[in-house]
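To: structure subgroup
Subject: Chain for Friday's discussion

All,

I'm putting the inputs and outputs inline so they're searchable in the archive.
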Amino acid sequence: MGNEQTLNRLEAKTYRVQGLTCTNCAAQFERNVKSLPGVKEAKVNFGAAKLTVWGEATIDELEQAGAFEQLTIREERERPARQEPFWKKKENRNVCIAAALLAIGWATSTTDSGWLAVAAYVAAIVIGGYSLFRTGLRNLLRWQFDMKTLMTIAILGAAAIGEWQEGAVVVILFAISEALERYSMDRARRSIESLMEMAPAEATIRRGAEEMTVRVEDVRIGDVMIVKPGEKIALDGVVVNGASTVNEAAITGESLPAEKAPGAAVFAGTLNGEGFLEVEVTKRADETTLAKMIDLVEEAQAERAPSQAFIDRFARYYTPFMIVIALLIAIVPPLVMGGDWLDWVYRGLAILVIGCPCALVISTPVAIVTAIGNAARRGVLIKSGVHLEQIGRLRAIAFDKTGTLTKGKPAVTDVIVYEGTREQLLAIAAAIEKRSQHPLASAIVRKAEEEGAPFLDAPVDAFQSLTGKGVKAAVGNETYYIGSPALFTSLIGELPDEAEERITAFRKEGKTVMAVGTADRLLGLVAAADPLRPSAPDTVTALRRLGVAEVAMVTGDHEQTAQAIGRQAGVSDIRAGLLPEQKLSAIRELKQRCGITAMVGDGVNDAPALAAADIGVAMGGAGTDAALETADVVLMADDLRQLPYTVRLSRRTLAVIRQNIAVALGLKALALAAAVPGWLTLWLVVFADMGATLLVTFNSMRLLRVKE
């Protein structure tokens, strides 16, 4: 507890790390950083290639801590440096020199100058494997058996028994494998780098009468940002002047541009269309929706999924076990059966190389990194690998109604007139409801605006809210009432039969009915409904095709409305009139009956139900801090169609992880079976191990192609 309080008082500084290729290297780098004099604590996020340091350390000191892996460190918000060509990197130049020396050794091995061939092989081993040996020998002295330790033992063992050519080939193949791993892991991490590059590094702002271009870190809340046509928006804010369309695909994954006018919110990283915008900045650079997305994705990539945790535990015992097997194969046959020492030591070295768990250990994290990054680019935030795996195993899903299956914005659907004209009825209703804050009042005002009813100039006096019933006000010389049919029953007695029939029919359709009239007569009826999202029926159908056994709706609305919306959406289990604690009970019952269950809501309401579900899914995370913070999965675009895509992505990820594990273990099993009788050479074993690692990585990168 005391250590946590100390860390909270210290400022955490975050850096980007380039060159991390394996989890063991990440763990070693973390230990090295922790041992630096000014560092109190350090944490390495392998998936995101990120280092967080509590305390004081220079970039030079951090790079020295990562020198064993030639790691490059840069500030978190600093744009990634342009990649150097392959031949310009020092470690790759050494590989090229070693390969040339190996070729010289091959060329001279057939001549009488055998010593020249051996010298060339030795030089190739030393030059190509210098950094490998430096790390491997240090780890060996500490009894840390990672990939480099095993390779060092194997190469030195090959040299000790006179297999110089084999040792040189192994060094070069291993170096090439390392270079390819770095390249492929960097490709897998590009999803995060691309998110970081979406927002401009500078913004044009107006302070007083002066316009200036400044770094986004120097922009203050309240500054007015100038966004020209075709420019990217640098920071979150609210439009104060101008109108345009903005492509928000970077945040929401939605390709259709959104209309922006004064009062509309805009987000960092989105692309302005053809209009000129002036935007008042509402969030600092490190607080924007895009910055929060990046942080959440990187945190998700740092958390180990269940399958990854299992693989890590397995590898912890697997590597020492393979070392013991290799040792037994090297010494038992010569001692017990009189076998040739050189032959059996060579086979033991081959087993040692087979024992390298790199492909196995990387099989899960590279898939998780790729999948979560792909989802983020398409507007879906998945908070951890645990939730990514659980989504693929979903058996039941429960939807809230308002704002989830429906648009959450009531609209007038029917206007029935009994006295006067439609225009007069809408004008009276809108003039009164303009003074109300109720969502249904807003629906009536919008309808009057759409139809051009003259309500803006109508004189309204003595406005009064009738709690639970409606409102009344004087328009001109007449007092009018708008409210529930029950209000008019209390005013004028029984309603006309035709009106009662209409009210009953509207309610069966899930509509809310408001009556308009005076204290002694009914002028008309206005029916409104929260319309179903057009994508809801297709989403429910797609989820069922994906094998989700139960699709339910849990809502606090009354039974008739819930049944109408549920039928339109195709939901099989409709539960209406539920209080928050009853929704919680419904989710628990679904979990008990069906298994892994998700709850889809707005991220603010229904908090108990979202928390009780195995996976809480929030709608519309763009601009909603509460949704970003509370849910396990956030659909940034407020689009239900992202849900089946997320389930498909999860299931594809689970399949890829299984394939990766099968490839890693399968190739090792084949190599082991071939190495014991001596059918497999040392360099072929290295080639097989390198192939397994690359197959696992490139197979995981196929997840980038999963689309909506």
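Points worth raising on Friday:
The longest strand covers residues 522-529.
DSSP finds 26 helices and 26 strands in the chain.

D.
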